[in-house]
Amino acid sequence: MKNKSTILLLFLLLLLSGNLFSQQWQTAVLQHASGAREYSIYVPSNYNPQNPASLVLTLHGLGDNMTNFRNIGFNILAETNNIIVVTPQAISDPIIGSTSWNSGAGFSFYTPNSTVDDVGFISALIDKVKQTYSINPNKVFACGFSMGGFMTERLALVLNNKIKVFASVAGTFGNAILPVAAGTPGRPVSIAHFHGTSDGTIGYTNNTYGNSVDDMISYWKTNNHSVSTPVHTQLPDTANDGYTVDHYKYVSNSNNSVIELFKVNNAGHTWLTAQNDISYTQKIWEFFNQNSSTLSVDETSSSIDFSMAPNPAADYVEFNFLSNSPDLSSAVEIVINDLAGRTVLTQKLESRDKKYRLSLKDHALKSGVYLVTIKIKNSVNTLHKKLIIK
């Protein structure tokens, strides 16, 4: 009898340990052009492929690492909000000797890791997670702190076809970004920003490594066609921490984009928690969740849609626009990117009764999975679908 009880106890412990293990952070490696890149991933214990999860990317700061940045608490929210959390690891810069994203933030004489394809790495990482887990494509989010905040702003400019809503903490546009990213992001973007007015590392007004908070907000207002005057409220001063929070919300009358600024008076270069007047992690998740319920103008929620056949394809692929699509007599451009985010093909397509045929034999595309983007001239719609080439 004692042996049976012992066996039963061990069995229950194994079940319990298996459940606990499933809730732990896991470290994985993605082979990329920038090298073998590490990342941490947290999958909630109640993950169900039949219920697509949200994906939240969290980007650490200069000199930090993914293990430390996992502690901002998104894994706690994951268990009750169906979130898969991914925290990638930046590469150490050979000159400054610290981990750094190629965010565009740097000194007047040097920009760390300026040759590292971090945008491509993060793009490929999103694709890999989507291949492994069931992810809601309209609930892919990114946030970051300090250098990770700068990187988040860069992603908002150049990777908003995959990431839908953004939030940066103590990081603006890097001083090497805006000249390079002219013309981006190409669509309205919902984004939140959190910054302490006493931040001595990334100044609220005097930012050594990029533009000021006000200049950054002005850029997004122009991009989003936002109202000039925000809705201004002050968050309740509930904690005895010496801080107060001014909240500014800018909306657009022509699209669904939202800009929110959380100006934390007297706060320094830090990530605030539930012990303060504001929990950055909680507030960021609220912002993500509130602004993912409506689709952005570049998604296939409008009457424009298309199919690709055959898919998987070998010799050719035909694009067939649905009968209720608008007039497509103007130029239609196809852009094909690989999973590293690199553009492998750009071509204008000829229209034949809303059908477009692309010969794959004429282009040396290797077997694999690609992201196809259709751009229609004089239209705000940009359509994305996955193509498999045999």
From TrEMBL:
<feature type="domain" description="Phospholipase/carboxylesterase/thioesterase">
    <location>
        <begin position="51"/>
        <end position="205"/>
    </location>
</feature>
<dbReference type="InterPro" id="IPR003140">
    <property type="entry name" value="PLipase/COase/thioEstase"/>
</dbReference>
<keyword id="KW-0119">Carbohydrate metabolism</keyword>
<dbReference type="Pfam" id="PF18962">
    <property type="entry name" value="Por_Secre_tail"/>
</dbReference>
<keyword id="KW-0732">Signal</keyword>
<dbReference type="InterPro" id="IPR043595">
    <property type="entry name" value="FaeB/C/D"/>
</dbReference>
<protein>
    <submittedName>
        <fullName>T9SS type A sorting domain-containing protein</fullName>
    </submittedName>
</protein>
<keyword id="KW-0964">Secreted</keyword>
<keyword id="KW-0858">Xylan degradation</keyword>
<keyword id="KW-0624">Polysaccharide degradation</keyword>
<feature type="domain" description="Secretion system C-terminal sorting">
    <location>
        <begin position="310"/>
        <end position="389"/>
    </location>
</feature>
<dbReference type="InterPro" id="IPR029058">
    <property type="entry name" value="AB_hydrolase_fold"/>
</dbReference>
<feature type="signal peptide">
    <location>
        <begin position="1"/>
        <end position="22"/>
    </location>
</feature>
<dbReference type="InterPro" id="IPR026444">
    <property type="entry name" value="Secre_tail"/>
</dbReference>
<keyword id="KW-0378">Hydrolase</keyword>
<dbReference type="Pfam" id="PF02230">
    <property type="entry name" value="Abhydrolase_2"/>
</dbReference>
